Amino acid sequence: MSTDDAGLTVAQMAQTTGVTAHTLRYYERAGLLRPVARTTGKQRRYRDTDVEWVAFLLRLRQTGMPIAQMREYADLRHRGDATTHSRLALLEAHQRALHERVTELRAHERALDEKIGVYRRALDATDRNDEGRQDS
Length: 136
Fold this sequence. Notes:
136 residues; mainly alpha; Multidrug-efflux Transporter Regulator, Chain: A, Domain 2; 2 domains; two-stranded parallel ribbon; 5 helices; 2 strands; MerR-type_HTH_dom; DNA-binding; DNA-bd_dom_put_sf; MerR family transcriptional regulator
C-alpha cells in the first residue's frame, strides 16, 4: 500500500504514543499492527486510527495482557464486526483476571501495611526507651 506524505512518520508516531520506533516496528512484525501505509519512498506513515490503536494496545499491555492474547484480539479486530462477540469475551476474561490480580495486590498491600506497623511500633518503643534513659 502506498500513500503520499500524509500521516505521521515513525519518529512522530513514537513521540505521539510514547513508544520507541523499535516497539512500533515490533508491533507490526508481531501482528499487533497491520502493515502501515507507506510513501512512494517506502517510509511508514501512521494515521490517527493507528495512534488510537497503539494507545489501546499500550493500555492492554499495562493491564498485563500477554502479547499472544493481544495478537489474538488484534486478529479478531482485523476480521471485523463478525468477531465482536469473541472480542468482548476476550476482554471480559482479561478484565476478570485483572480484577483477581487487583484483589491479590490489595491483600499483599495489607500484609505490607501490617509488617510496616510492627516495625514502626517497635521503633517507637525503642525511641521511648532511649528517651527515658537520657532523662535519668
